[in-house]
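**Backbone geometry record:**
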Amino acid sequence: MTRFKSEQGFTLVEMAAVLLIISVLLLLLVPSMSDGKSRADSVSCEGSVRIVESEINLYYAEHKAYPETLVAIDRATTESPLEYSCQSLVYTYAPTTGTLTKQ
């Protein structure tokens, strides 16, 4: 007489429990990942603004005056020569002081 080995495996309830736990963990993880992306975008934008401010200061060092518009340092379009946009933020340039301020 041959004996059959009892097969070991997961039940349907155990598999459903594992899938439920994985789903809950993913629901908690996804919002934190998108929040991190927006933070990374803002840090990148701040870095770009610092670079533009450095270019304004280099222009001042060379010409002893701030540029009249950001077109002079190739950082603006002709439609808005006193605005610098980064991501969804817009910065206004003040030619008298050479500063960029967030709108």
User: Anything to note?
Assistant: The two ends are 86 Å apart (CA to CA). The mean pLDDT is 86.
